[in-house]
Design goal:
- The protein has 8 helices and 2 strands; from the N terminus they run H-H-H-H-H-H-H-H-E-E.
- The protein has 295 residues and is mostly helical.
- It has a domain at 118-244: Cd81 Antigen, Extracellular Domain, Chain: A (Orthogonal Bundle), CATH 1.10.1450.
- A two-stranded antiparallel sheet has the order 1-2.
- Strand 1 (284-287) and strand 2 form a beta hairpin.
- Helix 1 (13-44) packs antiparallel against helix 3 and helix 4 (88-114) runs antiparallel to helix 8 (233-261).
- The two termini are 18 Å apart.
């Protein structure tokens, strides 16, 4: 049996603590996301009754926050412990997951560009399902209001989409005060008003369509987002490149650690493992069920 001594098995402290410092921020961000998500759920009483999540037909934004928090917490923890303890399994798990997420993001971006009509239809269905649940969840309501105010839009393709919501529906069976109206986030803001008028959208759609644009936004949010993307293509590209560089940085650092760290301990299982032998020259010695190579 032959044994080889590795002359460079020491892990560089520079790469080790650089990766650790990078991941500690990542891990702390995951803790913050988890804390915010659990706090939001506790305020809504979801922690005492988890069926409230399943009863919501739209998406609960807190679920997205918790999912992001779990992923960041898990990867940050694996990266921190893997770098600090020089654990090759955790480092490979961390780097492999980061690379997988990067290629998934790249694949989604390419597919979204190639199948724009399909993405547009899915986004419309997603937006309409959340319009139906607008009053069922306060976080979803705030998210839709923020989207409509920021993009100066109303509904998926127009104010008529709010007929999908039972409170804003124009049918005769509705007794809601918001009947045939729109949320206040659809209203054209009045610079003279310092206090937001949450009733500005009442009965707006009972008027002639030609007068709608005087008081509310008539453009749908899908068209607004489609027009926003070409105007801000450089910002979107810059953010995507920055995120990509951050994601590529971690596997690059892991590449410096994994080959070196893998030489620290390599077990072998032969009949010599059971022989109480100690090599005086210091090349190897049996330890437990394997052979640890001394450096």
């Amino acid at each position: 049996m032959h044994y080889y001594r590795y002359s460079n098995a020491e892990v560089s402290c520079w790469y080790k603590y650089l990766l650790f410092s990078y991941n500690i921020v990542f891990w702390l961000a995951g803790v913050v996301f988890l804390g915010v998500g659990l706090w939001a759920w506790s305020e809504k009483g979801v922690l005492s009754d988890l069926t409230k999540v399943t009863r919501l037909h739209g998406i609960d934004p807190v679920v997205l926050v918790l999912m992001v928090g779990v992923v960041m917490f898990t990867l940050g923890f694996a990266g921190c412990v893997g770098a600090l303890r020089e654990n090759i399994c955790l480092l490979k798990f961390f780097c492999g997951t980061i690379v997988l997420i990067f290629f998934l993001e790249l694949a989604v971006a390419v597919l979204a560009f190639l199948f724009q009509d399909w993405v547009r239809d899915r986004f419309r269905e997603f937006f309409e399902s959340n319009i139906r649940s607008y009053r069922d969840d306060i976080d979803l309501q705030n998210l839709i209001d923020s989207l409509q105010k920021a993009n100066q839009c109303c509904g998926a393709y127009g104010p008529e989409d709010w007929d999908l919501n039972v409170y804003f529906n124009c049918s005769g069976a509705s007794y809601s005060r918001e009947k045939c109206g729109v949320p206040f986030s659809c209203c054209v803001p009045d610079p003279a008003q310092k206090v937001v008028n949450t009733q500005c959208g009442y009965d707006v759609r009972t008027q002639l369509k030609s007068k709608w644009d005087e008081s509310i936004f008539t453009k749908g949010c899908i068209q607004a987002l489609e027009g926003w993307l070409p105007r801000n293509i450089y910002i979107v590209a810059g953010v995507f490149i920055a995120i990509s560089l951050l994601q590529v940085r971690s596997p690059a650092l892991c590449g410096f650690l994994c080959p070196r760290g893998s030489h620290i301990f390599e077990p072998y299982h032969t009949w010599e493992d059971w022989w109480p032998h100690v090599e005086l020259a210091g090349w190897w010695l049996p330890v437990g069920g394997g052979v640890a190579r001394t450096l």
